[in-house]
């Protein structure tokens, strides 16, 4: 079965949190590999100047360009910017802008914040596109949110991280609502707790976040009843350049449930084992 028939255009998920260190890149890498392992043609796009996602998996074919050329040259050939990872069905546009030349270029361009949305329309041979962002407010984060079908926000279950999420990420989302006057529809925000243990402090923070979302935010912002555990397997998997569920099968149900929540349209597919005849 050709799973590209599930969608007429790629389903774009942006992973964002204005607090650094929330494991955005790790989540993007695991989600991307899970989708690819289940037969979905998947593209990772690394927009962070610290190219963690770009370095996560080994490459079998490395393109000469990356995100800089994609954003600065409107008619760039895909083969010039899209690399192939060692995981079947999983491609990558690398971060190659360590000096952060992209951000001032976009800020000075009339279409800066919306250029990414238009450029992604030229990439139509993928089922899923996953965009990783930097851990601070920047025009590259704004453009990635505006281009998304869903905004996925991992939050560390610490009180300072939770406060920064409300100030930074929610503040950014609310600022971007001004684009709705120009025909843009902001993606639904789905937040989860990441690196969760069983301490009383974490339980307190999670309860506060639940109350906050239920009482202060509308249905466009959801704190999912799900969390990613603080297991050493995630660090080990990154060391071996593997998806965490390949490194440790105990984590397979976690990534499966996460992907089912983020991509409900592919739930039936995800419930099948990788490689199962479809």
From TrEMBL:
Top-rank lineage group of the source organism: Bacteria
Residues covered by the AAA domain: 12-161
One of the Pfam families matching this protein, by short name: AAA_31
Gene3D superfamilies cross-referenced by the UniProt entry: P-loop containing nucleotide triphosphate hydrolases
InterPro entries listed in its UniProt record: AAA_dom, DNA_Partitioning_ATPase, P-loop_NTPase
PANTHER family, sorted: COBYRINIC ACID AC-DIAMIDE SYNTHASE, P-LOOP CONTAINING NUCLEOSIDE TRIPHOSPHATE HYDROLASE
Protein name: Chromosome partitioning protein ParA
């Amino acid at each position: 079965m050709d799973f590209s028939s599930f969608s007429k255009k790629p389903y774009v998920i942006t992973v964002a949190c204005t607090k650094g260190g929330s494991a955005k890149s790790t989540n993007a890498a695991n989600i991307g590999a899970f989708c690819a392992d289940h037969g979905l043609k998947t593209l990772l796009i690394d927009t962070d100047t610290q190219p963690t996602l770009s370095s996560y998996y080994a490459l079998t074919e490395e393109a000469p360009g990356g995100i800089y050329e994609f954003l600065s040259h409107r008619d760039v050939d895909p083969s010039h910017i899209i690399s192939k990872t060692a995981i079947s069905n999983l491609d990558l546009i690398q971060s190659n802008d360590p000096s952060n030349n992209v951000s001032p270029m976009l800020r000075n361009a009339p279409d800066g914040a919306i250029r990414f949305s238009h450029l992604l329309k030229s990439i139509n041979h993928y089922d899923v596109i996953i965009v990783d962002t930097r851990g601070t407010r920047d025009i590259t984060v704004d453009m990635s949110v505006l281009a998304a079908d869903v905004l996925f926000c991992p939050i560390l279950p610490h009180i300072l991280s939770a406060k920064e999420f409300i100030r930074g990420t929610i503040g950014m989302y609310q600022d971007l609502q001004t684009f709705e006057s120009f025909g843009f529809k902001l993606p639904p925000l789905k937040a989860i707790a990441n690196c969760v243990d069983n301490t009383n402090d974490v339980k307190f923070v999670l309860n506060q976040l639940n109350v906050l979302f239920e009482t202060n935010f509308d249905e466009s912002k959801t704190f999912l009843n799900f969390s990613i555990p603080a297991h050493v397997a995630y660090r080990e998997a990154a060391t071996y350049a593997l998806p965490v569920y390949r490194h440790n099968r105990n984590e397979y149900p976690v990534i499966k449930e996460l992907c089912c929540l983020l991509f409900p349209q592919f739930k039936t597919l995800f419930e099948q084992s990788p490689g199962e005849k479809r």
